[in-house]
Amino acid sequence: MSRPKICFLFCGGTIGMVRSTQTGALQPATEAAEIIRDFPQIQRHLQLDFKMLMNIDSSNMQPRNWTEIATKIHQLYDKYDGFVIAHGTDTMVYTATALSYMLQNLSKPVIMTGSLIPLNELASDGRNNLIYACLTATLDIAEVCIAFANKIIRGNRAKKFHESFIEVFNSPNYPYLGELGRPTTLFEWRKKRRKRVLTFQPGFDTKISLLKLFPGFDPEIIDRTLDRGARGIVIEGFGPGNMPFLENSIIPKIEKATENGVPVIIANQMERGITNLNVYEAGFIAARAGAISSHDMTTEATVVKLMWALNRTRRPSEIRKIIEKDIAGEISL
Ligand code: ASP
Fold it and tell me: Checking DSSP bridges between strand 178-179 and strand 151-154, what pairing results, if any?
């Protein structure tokens, strides 16, 4: 049987970093990334083609970089059985989510991974993560995932949770797709390989704002956001998405934004929470003022979806439809 062909796209992160001799801080180093090129033993199981796309701390990742990665995958799509992306953990969830919206109807896996300790340091978790990511890319799975610390997580459901080896990413509102190890187990609810026609829909409008409420939040912040030309706003409300509607009421601002054709999406601040604007008056009034609920999407998935939606249409009713629709398993309907 021929070995599966896997394309390895290197984008940076701790996995490819070295410690600066001057400051001791971790910074990207091309030579470190090159270690992966000759990654040992794995070539016995699969044919790995290494491609260096960028080597940056993922805090520097911009939406145009997401598009660059998706474009590469789109170009090479037919040549490989799966893709692996090495990426920093800080914004991995955003990139995974963005890829899931741009590359719809995948028939093969796109697996993201990285490490907390650089690959060239003795106790690195990078080796384990890389091996498992490469093996995951050969399995019967067909979506954008994060394979990290022996778990497979749907990328657009993930959240960076911790900087310990145990649970770097978690998936607050959706079960893991698989567990890696002895044995490796894939769960039924994952998307499986089958013939599908890939649709490539790149591009994001970054002119949005994400605001987090706190008691005493000045509603004028929303005016300033609108003055600065925001084309969409995500607000993390309290509990299931509640907004103050007495003193410092947010409601007139939601009305104003909505009247100006600027969609307002309400997310929540809870660890595992689901936005539900029907539970309390404080949510209901916001919905009546025109706010859209993020439902069980993470804030990350909501923000990226809004940017993606605004690049396709500026019509508020269309934006609402996109936000409320399941594009790549990011929302439960
Ligand atoms: N700052 C690093 C990055 O996101 C963190 C990591 O890779 O774990 O690029």
Answer: antiparallel
CA of 58 to the centre of ligand 1 (A): 6
Amino acid 124 reads: S
Distance 139 CA to ligand 1 centre (A): 26
Does the domain made of 5-200 have the CATH classification 3.30.499.10? Answer: no
Mean pLDDT of 281-301: 98
Q: How many CA atoms lie within 13 A of 252 on its CB side?
A: 9
208-324 under CATH 3.40.50.40, yes or no:
yes
Q: What is the mean pLDDT of residues 24-45?
A: 74
For residue 20, is pLDDT > 90?
no
Of the CA atoms within 13 Å of residue 86, those in its CB half-sphere come to: 39
pLDDT tier for residue 210 given thresholds of 50, 70 and 90: very high
How confident is the model over 59-72, as pLDDT tens digits? 999 999 999 999 99
Q: How far apart are CA 159 and CA 235, in angstroms?
A: 18
Is the minimum distance from the CB of 118 to ligand 1 under 6 angstroms?
Answer: no
Residue 58 CB less than 6 A away from ligand 1: yes
pLDDT for 157-202, tens place per residue?
Answer: 999 999 887 789 999 999 999 999 989 999 999 999 999 999 999 9
Establish whether domains 5-200 and 208-324 are of one fold: yes
Q: Is 14 a catalytic residue?
A: yes
Q: Are 303 and 234 in contact (CB under 8 A)?
A: yes
Q: How far is the CA of 230 from the centre of ligand 1 (A)?
A: 29
Q: What is the CB neighbour count within 10 angstroms for residue 260?
A: 11
Q: Which atom of ligand 1 is least distant from the CA of 92?
A: 4
